[in-house]
Amino acid sequence: MPPTGAARAWPRRSAFRLRASGEFWAEAGLKPHITKGFKVSNDPMFEEKVTDIVGLYRDPPERAVVLCVDEKSQIQALDRTQPGLPLKKGRAATMTHDYKRHGTTTLFAALDVKSGMVIGECLPRHRAKEFLRFLRRIDRAFLKPRDVHLVLDSEADQKTVRGTVSPLNATHKTPDVKAWLSRHPRFKLHFTPTSASWLNLVERFFAEITSKRIRRASYTSVGDLEAAIYDYLGQHNAKPKPFTWTKTAEDILARERRALDKLDEIRGSR
């Protein structure tokens, strides 16, 4: 029996309310269905570190090279259980949600801020030993006596994994790395503030290689995965394009102050 009276009018009222709500959010420029990760740095030296690193990006020192260095660890060689359907008009390319794991690799990368070139190397583990090996490779790549400025992730964001210090995160404190750096004074280290790895430009390269290559294929082995990574590096370096840092230190610091003021306001209202 078809609905009558109030029951019949209810679906129309609900549709009207949903449409009216959507129009309200759109007019206000608000998107309540979207959330983003966010954390304000509490680094007491935030201003000094931001000013230092942004200065390297926007006005690099003469007769020196600026490299953004980090690792992308635990990259999984995922083998999809079925081939994906190709891209066609009206349909996106597909891939299965399930997969088989065939091990992992770690990509060490150094992005040359000026040229956009990337030095990259895949290694099975990410310890001080591997970081030191990567430092030696950087040393061979750039002729002396040019200074080499390395932008690294925050010391406070460092982790210890199974009793070993993770490289690029406090490895400069291990005896072997400290000794190597003391013998190579042309290497200058600059650390991003706590919870501000977005300040390290190599993260932008990691985002691109992840979205454009790593996630778009199926790998039957770690060797297969590393071959794809090296192929992408080769194509990138054949026609490198530097990432342009546009925000000034003053812009970043102003936004940081606004965010801190808002957090104080929220905490004070509780």
Describe this structure in words.
It contains seven helices and seven strands. It has 270 residues and is α/β, with parallel strands linked by helices. The chain has two domains: 1-35; 46-254, Ribonuclease H-like superfamily/Ribonuclease H (Nucleotidyltransferase, domain 5). The strands form two sheets. A five-stranded mixed β-sheet has the order 3-2-1-4-7. It is globular, with a radius of gyration of 24 Å.
Brief write-up:
The protein has helices spanning 5-28, 46-58, 128-141, 175-183, 202-212, 222-238, 249-268; strands at 64-80, 99-112, 118-123, 147-152, 160-161, 164-165, 187-191. By secondary structure, it is α/β, with parallel strands linked by helices.
Straight-line N-to-C gap? 52 Å
Provide the CATH topology of the largest domain: Nucleotidyltransferase, domain 5
| Count of individual helical segments | 7
Radius of gyration: 24 Å
> What global shape is seen?
globular
Structural class: alpha/beta
Major beta-sheet overview: 5 strands, mixed
CATH architecture of the largest domain: 2-Layer Sandwich
Mind telling me the CATH class of the largest domain?
Alpha Beta
Strand content: 15-25%
Specify the helix fraction band: 40-55%
Low-confidence stretches: 159-167
Enumerate the strands of the largest sheet in spatial order, edge to edge or round the barrel: 3-2-1-4-7
Would you tell me the overall average pLDDT?
Answer: 85
Order of helices and strands: HHEEEHEEEHEHHH
